[in-house]
Amino acid sequence: MKKKPKIIAVIGGAETTKKNLRIAEEVGRLIARSGNYLVTGGMGGVMEAASRGAKSGHGLVLGIIPSTDKGSANDFVDIPIVTGMNQARNIIIARTCDCAIAIDGKYGTLSEIAFCLMFGIPVIGISTWRIEAPIIHVATAEEAVRKALELVAD
Predict the structure, then answer these.
(1) What is the pTM (predicted TM-score) of this model?
(2) Confidence at residue 39, expressed as pLDDT on a 0 to 100 scale
(3) I want to staple 12 with a disulfide (CB 3.0 to 4.6 A). Which of 8, 88, 105, 151 is the partner?
(4) How is domain 7-139 classified at the architecture level of CATH?
(5) What is the pLDDT of residue 75?
């Protein structure tokens, strides 16, 4: 029987550095190449870069978008989930994923990290919040995805 794909979230800011965008794109590509699905907040910045990477790796991208307009999702989202919930949609991202990779980010990302940790969802971080919580900090896209796949293995 074929193993069911896992859903890995990439969370991070709409605004970040070029370096973090390159990392996010590589993370998305590696998630797709591993045969798993990507979920993001569906907008720009880290979310769009990860989505672009997943599409280049022929993966499936879910976007949990904050607005009521499907068209507001970035161009790489396959399935836009319209919430009209603004930042409150972060709880849906946390509930949907099996593991999250946080890249940079501000308070919205911090809330996603908190929700994941409250629900027992592992969080891997690259250049993100350093808080007294079990975030697994790594330095590269490869390390992040390898660790995520270890954590969600059946």
Answers:
(1) 0.95
(2) 98
(3) 105
(4) 3-Layer(aba) Sandwich (3.40)
(5) 98
